[in-house]
Amino acid sequence: MAEYKLYYFNERGRAEPIRLIFAYTGVKYEDIRTTKEEFRSKDSAIKAKTPTGYLPLLEVNGRFLPQTLAIIRYLAKAHGLQPEDPFDSAIADAYADTVSDLVTASLPARRETDPTKKKELGLQVLQEKLLPAMAVYEKRLSDNRQYLIGNKISWVDFVVFAFLDELHRKFGEKPYETAPNAKAYKERIANLPGIKEWIESRPKTEN
Q1: What strands lie across the sheet with 4-9, from one edge to the other?
Q2: Domain GST C-terminal, which positions (predicted)?
Q3: In this structure, are residues 32 and 5 in contact, taking their beta carbons and an 8 Å threshold?
Q4: Tens-level pLDDT at each residue, the chain (207 residues)
Q5: How many separate helices (H) and strands (E) can be counted in the chain?
Q6: In sequence order, what DSSP letters do the residues of 52-100 get, joined into one string?
Q7: Nearest to 134, CA basis, from 190, 165, 178
C-alpha cells in the first residue's frame, strides 16, 4: 500500500484538487502544511525535497512527484478516476488546462497588496477571464450532464470544482447569475460522500 505525504502551504490553492481526490477516494495521506516564509528559507527541509523548487509536492513511499496536474493524474490512474477513452482523457486535460490558465491570470490580483488595486484587478480578471470561462463550463454541463466527462466522475471534476468553489468564495453568487448548470454542478460535487465531510472539516484559511 502506498504511503502518501502531500506538502503545500496552509491554503487551498493549487493543492486543493489533490486534497479533494484524497477525500473522495478515502485514501489516507498526511497533509503537511508549511508557511511561505519557512519554505523560502535556505534551511527549508521541504524545499530540499522538491525536484523543481515549487509546491505542491507529493511523496509516495519516499519518492517525490512535483506539479499539480502530474500529481492529480497519477492519483487518478492509481485510484480509478482516469477516463478510459483516450479522447475523453484529452478533453479532461483541456478543461484542467483552462483552470491552470485562469489561476495564472489571477496571480497579479492575488499578489497585489494595495486593497483598492487588489479589488480593481480582481474585478477585471472576473470580467475578462473568469466569466467567459464560466460560460464554457456552463455549456459543457447542459443537457443534464452530471459531470464533465460523460456521467461518470473523473479527476477533472475536482479541478473544476475547486476553481468554482474559490470563485464563489471570492465573488459570491455573481458568477452564477447566468450559469445555473455550473451552480448545480458545484453543489452536486460538494455533497458527494467524502467531499462533504472534507469541506465541513478542512482548515479555515484566507486563500
Answers
A1: 30-34, 4-9, 57-60, 63-66
A2: 85-207
A3: yes
A4: 789 999 999 999 999 999 999 999 999 999 999 999 999 998 999 999 999 999 999 999 999 999 999 999 999 999 999 999 999 999 999 999 999 888 888 877 777 788 888 888 888 888 888 888 888 889 999 877 899 997 899 999 999 999 999 888 888 888 888 899 999 999 999 999 999 999 999 999 987
A5: 10, 4
A6: SS-S-EEEETTEEEESHHHHHHHHHHHTT-S-SSHHHHHHHHHHHHHHH
A7: 178
Q: Any residues with CB less than 8 A from the CB of 48 and at least 6 apart, and which?
A: none
Reading the block at residue 133, the C-alpha cell is: 470561462
- In order of 45, 52, 105, 124, 128, the CA distances from 194 in angstroms are 31, 31, 30, 35, 34
Cell representation of residue 128: 475578462
Place of cell 475578462: 128
